[in-house]
Write a structure and sequence with these properties.
- The protein has about 500 residues and is an alpha+beta fold.
- The protein has 2 domains: about 400 residues, no CATH class; about 60 residues, Glutathione synthase lid domain (Dna Ligase, domain 1), CATH 3.30.1490.
- The protein contains 16 helices and 21 strands.
- The strands form 5 sheets. Strands 3, 5, 6, 17, 18, 19 and 20 form a 7-stranded antiparallel β-sheet that branches.
């Protein structure tokens, strides 16, 4: 029988009285749309209209100590991923089995090999990373709270869910969530609560990385290019990055192109500079290119190779993209592996503590043991492929069927991960077209910490933590992506 889940106390007393709830929700919806906390509808798409993005009416509680730990660790995670991306032998060995069966990862790896053979046009990479984590309520390291009182907030430690190295979204929507909820708390006559909502400069931090890379490229006429999907639903999150750069640095031009458009209009100049029409590109920021559907034909892969061969600074470069695969993260979670990339024993210990169990499914003794373990106790695990963007994982009791349908070789495209059991809290989830007043539901949250790192194989030029975002989903839902349609914007309310 499942143990009673840990709960986190809400930041204000809930439920609210219905008239007050209705009034503040109406205001918050309008506030969200008018401040760009919005998306285009997937069901009634129009380039001329926006819906507000789903959001939690009030912020969700998060232990202050764990939040501060996550923020402090981000620069170490940045350095770890930078070193991983520049270790050719490690990437090649780790992905050897996966690329035999996962066509998409194989195509990425093929681009990597071709660029290695012809020489990198640009040694410097820009990494805009997001380290996603969840609180683990059945935490081994500390047991429960030191105090023996009846407070319903047991000690929780946090565990790494994944590290995103491409299209790490919500640089705008993270801070926008805090702004909506700050407005709501003030409307509810609770302004004293605002001091427990941490400052969030994610948009400035992420754009700062692009601007620094543009300066390093050192051509005042060159542009920053966003690589975008054919249709962009999460438009505000992308455009606010562009508008921020244009507002603060009007001399820097920003263009948006699809992979197809880069193929049709792009070429290399004499010095390997990337030319799109008559514009030279200093920095390429990928908001697309992380899933197979973005590559319609060989043309888009040619475009990716063209960009990787150029002198433009990529975010991410192809080796950073590969460093973000689940298979690499599973390999990093093995004991002793971190010593290859980090020299400080204290840092190794700190990073080691945040990894949850990650297991290989390769066709060997270790992988076969994992396979048996997954069939025996599937409810303990999540099955993950080498994909970003949400909606791809297999959970719990669905795992045995999924695994039995795969050949031994096909299994190596996947990894198995311990299912994290986060604490539950309550909140009002407000959705476009949702019922009014919004229902009070049990929810769980996932925190993302942004990091920016710039450097080459020998040096790191710049490394900092760059804000955060919080996504919250109904406690019974498996996936939690807001853009994928299952999560909602939120922000942390820090509790001691």
């Amino acid at each position: 029988m499942a143990e009673h889940p840990t709960t986190l106390e809400e930041c204000i007393a809930l439920p609210l009285k219905e008239p007050e709830l209705l009034e503040v929700t109406e205001k918050a919806k309008d506030w969200a749309i008018m401040h760009g906390a919005a998306m285009r509808s997937k069901t009634n798409f129009s380039p001329d209209s926006l819906n507000f993005a789903p959001f939690l009416l009030t912020p969700s509680s998060f232990p202050r100590k764990e939040f501060e730990k996550a923020v402090a660790l981000q620069t170490i995670i940045n350095r770890l991923m930078h070193n991983v991306a520049h270790d050719e032998e490690f990437l090649t060995t780790t992905l050897a089995e996966t690329i035999k069966v996962d066509e998409f990862t194989a195509n990425l790896f093929n681009v990597y090999k071709k660029v290695l053979a012809s020489g990198f046009g640009q040694r410097i990479s820009l990494g805009i990373l997001r380290s996603d984590l969840m609180l683990e309520s059945s935490c081994k390291e500390n047991g429960s709270n030191k105090e023996e009182n009846e407070k319903p907030c047991a000690y929780c430690c946090w565990k790494q869910v994944e590290i995103n190295t491409i299209a790490s979204g919500f640089g705008h929507l993270g801070p926008a969530s805090k702004a909506i909820q700050s407005f709501v708390l003030t409307e509810l006559d609770q302004p004293e609560k605002l001091k427990n909502m941490p400052d969030n400069q994610a948009l400035a931090g992420i754009c700062g990385g692009m601007i620094r890379a543009w300066e390093i490229y050192n051509n005042p006429k060159a542009v920053i290019m966003f690589i975008v999907e054919d249709v962009t639903y999460n438009i505000c999150d992308q455009r606010f990055h562009e508008f921020y750069i244009r507002e603060k640095y009007p001399h820097i031009k920003v263009i948006r192109r699809t992979l197809t458009e880069v193929h049709d209009t792009g070429k290399l100049g004499l010095a390997k500079e990337l030319l799109i029409g008559d514009l030279e590109v200093a920095v390429i920021y990928f908001r697309a290119g992380y899933e197979p559907g973005h590559y319609h034909s060989h043309n888009e892969w040619d475009a990716r190779y063209l960009m990787e061969s150029s002198t433009a600074i990529k975010c991410p470069s192809i080796h950073y993209h590969l460093a973000g695969t689940k298979k690499v993260q599973q390999a990093l979670a093995q004991p002793e592996m971190l010593e290859r990339f980090i020299s400080d024993p204290e840092e190794i210990k700190a990073i080691g503590k945040i990894f949850t169990g990650l297991y290989s499914l390769d066709d060997n003794d270790v992988g076969n043991k994992t396979f048996e373990m997954a069939l025996k106790e599937p409810e303990r695990f999540v099955l993950k492929p080498q994909r970003e963007g949400g909606g791809n994982n297999v959970y719990g009791l669905d795992i045995p069927d999924a695994l039995r349908k795969m050949s031994r070789v096909e299994r190596s495209a996947w990894i198995l991960m311990d299912l994290i059991k986060p604490p539950i809290s309550k909140g009002y989830m407000v959705r476009p077209g949702g019922t009014m007043p919004p229902p009070l539901v049990e929810v769980v949250s996932e925190l993302g910490i942004f990091g920016v790192v710039i450097g080459d194989v020998d040096n790191i030029i710049c490394n900092y933590q760059a804000g955060h975002m919080l996504r919250t989903k109904v406690a019974t839902a498996n996936e939690g992506g807001v853009a994928a349609g299952l999560g909602a914007l939120d922000s942390p309310y820090l509790v001691d």
